Amino acid sequence: MLVKCPECGHQVSDQAKTCPSCGIEIAGKITRCPDCGEVIFKEQSFCPNCHCSINGASVPQNVAFPPAQPAVVKTQPQQEPEQAPPAPRRPRRHRAGLTAIIVAFVLALIVVFLGIYFMKNQERQNEQRAYTNAMLSSEPLVLQNFLDMYVDAPLAHRDSIKVHLEALKKIDSDWADALVNNSRNAYERYMKLHPSSRYIKEAMIKIDSLDWIAATKLNTVEAFKKYITDHEDGIYVDEARANFERLEAQKLTDDDRQMVVSLFNSYFNAIAQMDEAALSATLAPVLTSFLHRANATKEDVCQYMQKMHEADITGMSFTQAGDWDIEKREVGEGRYSFTVKFTTTQRIERTDENRETSVNYRVTAQVSPEGRITEFNMKRSVQ
Predict the structure, then answer these.
(1) β-pairing, 373-380 with 286-290?
(2) How far apart are CA 281 and CA 270, in angstroms?
(3) Distance between CA 207 and CA 368 in Å, rounded?
(4) What is the predicted pLDDT for the residue at 124?
(5) Residues facing 237 on adjacent strands
(6) Fewest CB within 10 angstroms: 5, 34, 56, 298, which?
């Protein structure tokens, strides 16, 4: 292998007999310093480079080691320039330890910076997710939590959250006002102002309840029909339909009116003609009240008819005024009774012309589903 000639410093093979540059013997005459690795002659007791002992010899205190002088070049007339001795080298073990420490320190810095980078990146991602969720939320508490937790969030994010929070507070304030007012107009106004509010569904429920209360107070076919039209999916729509059908069925038909009018015309005609059979046909077996007498029978009514025809009465007739007030009421499935109010005028033919010949009565009566009179009361009315 090529080594540096310890005499002249030129490159030479360690197997060469002599240095081709300076002619000094090489093969078998050189070795390496065990400390610094410099090529030296075997007979040297001290390394000229690091001054360490080669064969266990001690270095005298007063001995100085001048740099090696180059030998006279035999083959070349020119002389090589004198070279300065190489600087002393630190032991390899010291240099290796220092390198390891430096590498470890650099790696530690890299780990720390990477940790800080990933931590900051994770914080940015968490803040972005929290910001997105807060902007989509309709809960003021969620937005306030964002402001409290992310005090170092980007100013644009914090400003947007604050604007959104103020808008939600205004929505809540208007909703509180609508609840205090608790009217259909108040809820409709709120829905118009805040069509995307989280209280829209509750406002619709409030309106539904208010309309239902109004319909039940009126308790008419028209009121329930309006509720059904306005609230096809309302909470009370089934009950409204049932009430509508009930009231619709209770509406007085032309047939109902004709039956009632004919019944009382027959009753008064039977009284006028003293026809017990015809009179009985208009009556229920027992009347709950007849001229304010409870549980009157047909016989009781017939006896009253006999009393009406006094000795001086030669004839009588009854004429209904036409002011029929008939109310139909359901008393069972498909069964209806009738409350009837009207005025009738009794005209009397007498032998005694000084006695009254005309009397007006106000009649209040009840008619059963079978078309029979179950209650009959009347009193004189002022002409």
Answers:
(1) parallel
(2) 10
(3) 41
(4) 87
(5) none
(6) 56
Q: What is the pLDDT of residue 285?
A: 96
8 Å CB contact between 377 and 365: yes
- 346 to 11, 259, 278, 302, 308: CA distances (angstroms): 162, 22, 19, 18, 11
H/E element, 245: helix 237-250
For residues 36 and 363, give the distance between their C-alpha atoms in angstroms, rounded to a whole number: 144
Contact 359, 380 (CB under 8 A): yes
The model's pLDDT over 232-278, given as tens digits with 9 standing for 90+, comes to 999 999 999 999 988 888 889 999 999 999 999 999 999 999 999 99
Continuous segment of H or E residues that includes residue 222: helix 221-230
Number of other residues whose CB lies within 10 A of the CB of residue 14: 15
Beta-strand pair 39-41/30-32: antiparallel
- For the whole model, what pTM was predicted? 0.46
62-93 b/e (C-beta count within 10 Å ≥ 16 → b): eeeeeebebbeeeeeeeeeeeeeeeeeeeeee
Question: Residue ranges of the chain with pLDDT lower than 50?
Answer: 68-77
Q: Which two tokens stand for residue 43?
A: 């007979």
What token pair was written down for 32?
A: 């390496």
Q: What CA–CA distance (Å, rounded) separates 228 from 211?
A: 10
Domain definitions of the chain by residue range? 1-85, 126-198, 200-249, 254-380
Pair 204, 184: CB distance under 8 Å: no
Q: For domain 254-380, give the CATH number.
A: 3.10.450.50
Show the DSSP H helices in 85-196 as ranges.
92-136, 140-149, 155-181, 184-193
- What whole-number distance in Å separates Cα of residue 32 and Cα of residue 6? 10
